[in-house]
Specification:
Layout (H helix, E strand, L loop, with lengths): L8 H4 L3 H12 L9 E5 L7 H7 L4 E6 L2 H9 L4 E3 L11 E7 L8 H11 L5 E7 L5 H11 L16 H10 L3 E13 L4 H7 L4 H6 L2 H18 L8 E13 L2
Parallel strand pairs: 1-2, 1-4, 2-3, 4-5
Antiparallel strand pairs: 5-7, 6-7
Helix pairs in contact: 5-7, 6-10
């Protein structure tokens, strides 16, 4: 996770089922049979690191995250995580699988890092990443629209925070690796009061929360909530459909 925002592990895990599904879809495409070292690059609260350990029980599993709150939560869950920015991570010679799940959208230089990491991996190794591809969705566009008129400057990511699938396919292929790239839009069924607002509070709204006082943050949410309800209306059964596009990249060294 990015070190530029303050993360709340409990809030992040409120939608664990929806957030974890892309991770499982990602690692299902990793074909490296018996990796020596598996890296969870941006492990968050560590709830998915154990999945990697179960998938490859003979491997050394390395977990790191730039957020002290997330690292503390991971350690409390029994994961031997360490605090480190992903930008500073360098693959060891025995690194055979690297998984980075919903992390690199927070790292502006991730395209250059991906090229460097893949180039440093041994033959047969796999780099697997998943990032949100929904920065143009109403949930994010409305945040940017309100922030643009706010009296306090708020630094937010734009639609350029991540690339399109074709860009990542070209990037991976240029390293000499075999590229497996796809996208999926999950129709997430959310329930409760202002469910889309609750979803983005733990992710997209973190920079807003860090930039504003508690009073101003409450004002911001008061402006945002009705517009989200309009963009994502409640259905007849009381639930709300929240389309969430994800971009997946699996690169295998040859």
């Amino acid at each position: 996770m990015s070190s530029s925002t303050t993360w709340d592990p409990a809030l992040y895990l409120d939608f664990d089922d929806h957030r974890s599904r892309p991770f499982h879809d990602l690692i299902a495409r990793v074909r490296t049979p018996a990796p020596r070292r598996v890296v969870d690059l941006g492990c968050g609260p560590g709830h998915l690191t154990s999945v990697l350990a179960a998938r490859w029980p003979e491997a050394v599993v390395e977990a790191l995250d730039s957020s002290p709150e997330m690292v503390a939560a991971a350690r409390a869950a029994g994961v031997d995580a360490r605090e480190q920015a992903v930008e500073d991570w360098v693959p060891r010679a025995d690194t055979d699988v690297v998984v980075t799940n919903a992390v690199l959208q927070w790292v502006p230089t991730h395209r250059e890092l991906i090229t460097r990491w893949i180039g440093a991996l041994p033959a047969g190794a796999t780099f697997a990443m998943q990032v949100p591809g929904n920065f143009g969705a109403p949930s994010h566009a409305l945040i940017r629209e309100i922030a643009a008129c706010w009296e306090t400057p708020i630094g937010l990511r734009t639609e350029l925070a991540v690339g399109e699938p074709a860009e990542y396919a070209d990037l991976v292929t240029a390293t000499g690796a075999v590229a497996d790239v796809w996208e999926t839009t999950y129709m997430q069924r959310l329930t409760g009061e202002d469910p889309v607002l609750q979803w983005i509070r733990s992710t997209a709204l973190r920079p807003v929360r860090d930039a504003l006082s508690e009073v101003d943050y409450a004002r911001f949410l008061d402006r945002l909530a009705p517009r989200l309800r309009e963009a994502y209306p409640m259905t007849a059964d009381g639930s709300t459909w929240f389309p969430f596009r994800r971009i997946f990249v699996v690169a295998t060294r040859v």
